[in-house]
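Anyone up for a design puzzle?
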């Protein structure tokens, strides 16, 4: 073989698939993060206004599932579930 002569493969080489970057787990954010928390609270109250207790529980369940899908990170969701479950039972409001 001559110097700098290219060796040709017997079969065409297929390009590699791009590799997704590894995402570091996002920690649960416990710092205030809403631009308008009072506005959100009012929106939430308005959504529950006029609903029965069962309808209100269904709305909460749907909202939790939609927000969990938005977060999308199983580790963060597990942290949030554990944090919510650790709150004192019977607490009427989060302050």
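Challenge accepted. My sequence:
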């Amino acid at each position: 073989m001559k110097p700098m002569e290219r060796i040709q493969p017997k079969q065409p080489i297929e390009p590699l698939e791009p590799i997704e970057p590894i995402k570091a787990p996002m920690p649960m954010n416990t710092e205030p993060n809403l631009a308008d928390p009072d506005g959100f609270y009012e929106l939430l109250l308005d959504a529950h206004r006029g609903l029965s207790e069962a309808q209100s529980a269904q709305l909460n369940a749907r909202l939790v599932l939609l927000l969990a899908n938005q977060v999308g990170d199983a580790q963060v969701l597990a942290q949030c579930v554990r944090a919510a479950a650790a709150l004192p039972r019977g607490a009427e409001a989060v302050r």
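A detail worth pointing out: Helices lie at 37-48, 53-71, 74-85.
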